[in-house]
Amino acid sequence: MRNIPLSAMIGLFFTGIYFIMAIFAPWIAPYGMAEVVGDVWEPSSSEFLLGTDSIGRDLLSRMIYGGQTTIFIATAATILSFTLGSVMGFFAAVSGGWVDQVLSRFVDLIMSIPSLIFALVVLSVMPTTVPILIILMGLLDSTRVYRLARAVAVDITVMDYVEAARLRGEKIGWIIFRETLPNALSPLVAEMGLRFIFAVLFVSTLSFLGLGVQPPQADWGGIVKENKEGINYGIQAALYPAYAIATLCISINLVADWILNRTTSLKGGRG
Amino acid sequence: MHPILKLIAQRLALGLLLLLAASVLIFAGTSILPGDVAQSILGQSATPEALANLRRELGLNDPAVTRYFAWLGGVLQGDLGTALTNGRDIAESLGGRLKNTLFLAFWAAAISVPLAIFLGLLAVRYKDRWPDKLISAVTLTTISIPEFMIGYVLIYWVAIKWRMFPSVSIINESMTLGAKLNAIAIPVMVLTLVVLAHMMRMTRAAILNVMQSAYIETAELKGLGMLKIIRKHAFPNAIAPIVNVVMLNLAYLVVGVVVVEVVFAYPGMGQYLVDHVSKRDVPVVQACGLIFAAVYIGLNLVADIVSILANPRLRHPK
Amino acid sequence: MTEPLLKVRGLKIGATAYPPGEKPVAIKIVHGVDFDLEAGKVLGLIGESGAGKSTIGLAAMAYGRGGVEITGGEVWVNGRDILKENLRSLRRLRGAEVTYVSQSAAASFNPAKKIMEQVTEAAIFQGKFTKAEAEARAVELFSKLGLPDPENIGNRYPHQVSGGQLQRCMTALALCPEPDLVVFDEPTTALDVTTQIDVLAAIKEAIAATGVAALYITHDLAVVAQVSDHIMVLQQGDMVEYGTVDQIINAPKEDYTKALVSVRSIKHEEKTPTDNPVLRVENVTARYKGTNFDVLKNINVDIHPGQTLAVVGESGSGKSTLARVITGLLPPREGQITFDGRVLSPDLPTRPIEDLREMQMIYQMADTAMNPRQTVGTIIGRPLEFYFGLKGKAKQKRIQELLDEIELGDGFQDRYPAELSGGQKQRVCIARALAAKPKLIICDEVTSALDPLVADGILKLLLNLQKIEGVAYLFITHDLATVRAIADSIAVMYQGEVVRYGPKSQVLSPPFDDYTDLLLSSVPEMKIGWLEETIEHRRMESAGN
């Protein structure tokens, strides 16, 4: 932990704070999630640090609970997309041949339609519940992870040390877990940060459009939707989630950048 | 046949095939998924009779394959079906909205593309100095905020605080071009910001990649000046990657339009789509989805073809 | 005495390195070098990789590649110190007074422009010639450099001519503006040996005809001996020795120069073939999936226990493919391979473990042959564990024995490949192969990525291990000096066929077939005048036919 650059430190710090707030939301939030405690759009005061929202709920509590929902959905979707995408990507790269062809062409097809449009099409017939949102986002985003994992694995499997292992008579398990995976992990971990950011933006967008998390449950996109009318009266309530999302995403970006730099320089060795 | 024509013909055929496959996917996404369309339209409290009626009306009793081909046949003749919610012809309702969306996207592209390329060049020119760093910091920020939030931040400042442009972008046929442009000023700004960051980053990377080639060093060692090197040696090789970047981001813009239209209540296709997704109006969603997919695939196709045309190895075979 | 064309005094060059996760550090590449070059003369700069030769060459144009910076000293060209000049006047120097020929012409030509435009660009831009004059001069140079169809070759794009031709075009590019000095940076290193000789002769003739001075940079002493008047030997940024070609080749003073001159002086007694070859390749024909021509055509060779078969050929001759067929990575279309008396299964997955163990492989690039995330101990230990079930102390002991055998000694077990030098990496790969106690090791160009002295050490080690362990080698290489040094028998490959095969003494003695003759006579010898003799000899022969 000696050589962490300042930017990565800042990133780690804010990422940590957001995750802690998400995990301990019920203990941190001053009021209940859907509790009406004051007037409509009260300005910030010692009672309500960020003021109240369009129907008089404490905005700070909404933000904390909203962060919990958004971060939970994004995390779950990222885990799903990562597991599925990298397993399939590795499988395709190591198998090669028609397995690779079929999987890769299918992924090309899914990616030929923009994710948001695809999600809208599917959500027009599916109920918008949290599990469905997670699965939908996870599946759609796994295509991107698949492409990266496959590309990285293909790069590694053509290395002479993998050929040497095959000539030695090693089983496929050793080749994947001992020769390929340790070298593929770093770019994948960095990508994981980017996928998480994408998931945060995506779920917020869906909620904003009214097709994501349904009220009264709070989430950052939803808070914008609920308070957008306030903008016209110069009330900033709808902008707080923007600041939250921006700081979270930038922090994660900084961490991902650092991981990527650190690992590529390890991989290159001398020179 | 010249090999390049053959390659382009191949790409065109592949694009059509992809579009066909995308139509299958869109149709499948609304038809074969476990949710029952009739049920989700009418809700849990619907009577069995009403459900049966709606199913018949939607042709849900036919096998999916039959329904797909009926739908596709209609689409090919320009018949996109009728909306469930108001019974109007979808193609008719879409016409004007598509025009509005393209109007918005056109102005966003007209501003963002030259700006992005200029800033990208600037970042390369001052690589690792403060202009480059500033540009990448701003880029990082705009990438980290969703489109709709940039929208509201701009509305808050530009429309409400400074009162420069309207916060709602309603346009109609009778407005003059100036009035229309005034109405869409903020959405164009939002879209520009959204794609600018990506486009500039990628332009910068593409140009840097070319500038690090050995033939640029050769040109430097001929004593050529920087501008001449960029014009004569870097530019011809950077066209293809830059066009690729632009097309990719225009495709991205198409998606951004959907959200931005909702924010500004702009009467375009995106708003129409989102509106009908919440109303569970499946035929409208299918039609819009297909059009968005077609634009997206088309832009990617253009990028592919430009890359082929710009490749000297393909243009001048051995 | 008149002022020399190029006068370098106390030249110091540095760069900034960016070690991962640490602060950037300044490193020194050249620590104070002095030399003169008279007009019309050729100075050879020689040294191993990292000696700073290219950096010094580019300093003659006051140019630093990448993060390289000239930190001190003087570089006088035509009587003025160019390190003191601003970029504007440097631009009038570059491409006019001093020009540059790079190692890779393929990368140095702009793929989007015709050759003629690029060859004449500097001459026109610098105001030396009009467009018509420059083009006439280019055509003249094309024909002087022996390019086919000199009138029209300029209308082609770089990818439309061969590598050897493009390297000559690069020379024309450098000579076109009538410079006073040309910097040749390893201009023939990337070429096959039979192409190299022609390009070398063309460059030499062009230098003589135009009377230009040259800095000729290479790592190959035999090459530089053909074209230079003087030689400067460099080692890690310092000048080791400077002298005339004759003095450096025939009477080197410094130990380092002596070592460079006497490289590949390994004495190896040829062993006689036995009755029971360890590996027999019979009538093997192979092609890659999705292609429609055979890369190997009816190959027949034997390898005898404890002996070395050298397979020699140029790029594309099929020599590496032969290794892939023998190891089972590419099953042959026809023919069979017998190993230690038993017929080998054609493809890898169906071979029994014993067959795999007894045949090991060493690669050209030791960098990519070792998993960067495994320690040396793990790399060498895995075959011990995998084939012999060695664990714990016994494994540690055996790893150390192997490390001793490859002359690395203590303290290497816990290191990662990135912490080793090129030669050390290759030694670890040898140890990994030895760990399996193989009967045959396939060595695919194992020394060609290494500097000559390091390569020499590896070859000596391999020969020594052969004596101790009795292992046979299939030694694939394009380098005839290596072949002479270590082979017992030789197979010469050309376009997928073995054109000549037999014991070393027989293969290397006349009468030769045409290709072997061409190949053997193209290898530069460390002898002044060798190039002229060979070219003259070839002319007489072709005239005689």
Report on the architecture of this protein:
- The complex is a heterotrimer of chains A (271), B (318) and C (545).
- With 271 residues, chain A is mainly alpha-helical.
- In chain A, 73% of the residues lie in helices and 0% in strands.
- In chain A, helix 3 (59-95) crosses helix 9 (220-231).
- Mean pLDDT of chain A is 83; it is low at 265-271.
- In chain B, helix 5 runs antiparallel to helix 6 (130-143), helix 9 runs antiparallel to helix 11 (226-263) and helix 11 (226-263) crosses helix 12.
- In chain B, 40% of the residues are buried.
- In chain C, a hairpin with a 2-residue loop joins strand 19 (489-494) and strand 20 (497-503).
- The mean pLDDT of chain C is 88.
- At the A-C interface, helix 7, helix 8 and helix 10 of A face helix 12, helix 13 and helix 14 of C.
- Chain C: One of its GO terms (cellular component) is plasma membrane.
- Chain C: One of its GO terms (biological process) is transmembrane transport.
- Chain C: Residues 8-261, 279-520 form the ABC transporter domain.
What portion of the residues of chain C fall into strands of 2 or more residues? 15-25%
Tally of strands of chain A? 0
Q: Give the strand content of chain A.
A: under 5%
Alpha-carbon Rg of chain C, integer: 26 Å
Low-confidence segments of chain C, given as residue ranges, are none
CATH fold name of chain A: MetI-like fold
Q: Give the class-level CATH name of the largest domain in chain C.
A: Alpha Beta
N- to C-terminal separation of chain A? 24 Å
Shape of chain A: elongated
This entry's quaternary arrangement is: heterotrimer
Please, how many domains of chain A?
Answer: 1
- Main-sheet strand order of chain C equals 6-7-8-3-9-10
Number of individual domains of chain C: 2
Number of helices of chain A: 10
Largest sheet of chain A: none
Report how far the terminal alpha carbons of chain C are from each other. 51 Å
If you average the pLDDT of chain C, what whole number results? 88
Question: Which two chains touch over the largest interface?
Answer: A-B, 43 and 53 residues
Helical content of chain C stands at 25-40%
Briefly summarize what is shown.
With 318 residues, chain B is an all-alpha fold.
Write the layout of secondary structure elements.
The complex is a heterotrimer of chains A (271), B (318) and C (545).
Chain A: H1 6-23, H2 25-28, H3 59-95, H4 97-111, H5 115-123, H6 130-157, H7 160-168, H8 172-208, H9 220-231, H10 240-268
Helix pairs in contact in A: 1-3, 1-10, 3-4, 3-6, 3-8, 3-9, 4-6, 5-6, 6-8, 8-9, 8-10, 9-10
Chain B: H1 3-31, H2 37-42, H3 48-58, H4 64-76, H5 90-125, H6 130-143, H7 147-161, H8 177-183, H9 185-211, H10 214-221, H11 226-263, H12 269-278, H13 282-310, H14 312-315
Chain C: E1 6-17, E2 25-37, E3 42-46, H1 53-59, E4 69-77, E5 80-81, H2 87-93, E6 98-101, H3 105-108, H4 115-125, H5 131-144, H6 163-175, E7 181-185, H7 193-210, E8 213-218, H8 221-227, E9 230-235, E10 238-244, H9 245-250, H10 255-261, E11 279-286, E12 296-303, E13 308-312, H11 319-327, E14 334-339, E15 342-343, H12 353-358, E16 359-362, H13 366-369, H14 376-388, H15 392-405, H16 422-435, E17 440-444, H17 452-469, E18 472-477, H18 480-486, E19 489-494, E20 497-503, H19 504-507, H20 514-522, H21 530-544
Parallel strand pairs in C: 3-8, 3-9, 6-7, 7-8, 13-18, 13-19, 16-17, 17-18
Antiparallel strand pairs in C: 1-2, 1-4, 4-5, 9-10, 11-12, 11-14, 14-15, 19-20
